[in-house]
Amino acid sequence: MLMTDLLSKEEWNALERKVHEEWGFNASVYNADGMTFTGYKNFVNPLCAEIKSHPEGIQAICSVAHQHMAQLARSSGKTVIEECDAGMVKVCTPVIIDGEFIGIVGGCGRIADDSEIESFTVHKAINVELEKVENLADEVPVLSMERIEKLADFLENFVGDIDST
């Protein structure tokens, strides 16, 4: 089964837009192979845009976090909320229908109110001046864990509604 067997590409795209607009996250829907398929690109801060403009940043920070968290979500069957190596929160909710893992919905790109950006780690990963990374880090929006958990609840309910149809 594929994600597009559950909802159309446009409906998944609408979910990404809603997560981006209402929670201020870089929203993504991934298939079971870990690939995005909607074509929706969004950044909630300039640091994420900078990281993703460098292939080594995608590989060292974004892909590592996604692979790790998607595997945790897949094996546990539950939403995972953790930070990437840059210090930003990532939310991964598995889409599991009748015991079959179909994909992941979630988002990233905000900093929890009790955390901080790992500027030095980003600097080393993408080879951009530390001062520039620190300036970009200052623009990463902060979000409370309560609000992050509300996003997780929303995503779980969204997936649950798919499963019950």
Short synopsis of the structure:
This protein is an alpha+beta fold and 165 residues long.
How would the global form be characterised?
globular
* Main sheet record: 5 strands, mixed
What is the helix tally?
7
Q: From N to C, what is the helix and strand string?
A: HHEHHEEEHHEH
Strand content: 15-25%
Query: What is the tally of beta strands?
Result: 5
Instruction: Give the N-terminus to C-terminus distance in angstroms.
Output: 15 Å
The percent range for helix content is 40-55%
Task: Map the helices and strands.
Blueprint: H1 3-6, H2 9-23, E1 26-31, H3 46-52, H4 55-76, E2 80-83, E3 89-97, E4 100-112, H5 119-126, H6 130-137, E5 142-143, H7 145-163
Helix pairs in contact: 5-6
Overall description:
This protein has 165 residues and is an alpha+beta fold. The protein has helices at 3-6, 9-23, 46-52, 55-76, 119-126, 130-137, 145-163; strands at 26-31, 80-83, 89-97, 100-112, 142-143. Strands 1, 2, 3, 4 and 5 form a 5-stranded mixed β-sheet that branches. The longest helix has 22 residues, at 55-76. It is globular. The mean pLDDT is 94.
For the structure shown, list the relevant keywords.
165 residues, alpha+beta, 5-stranded mixed sheet, 5 strands, 21% strand, globular
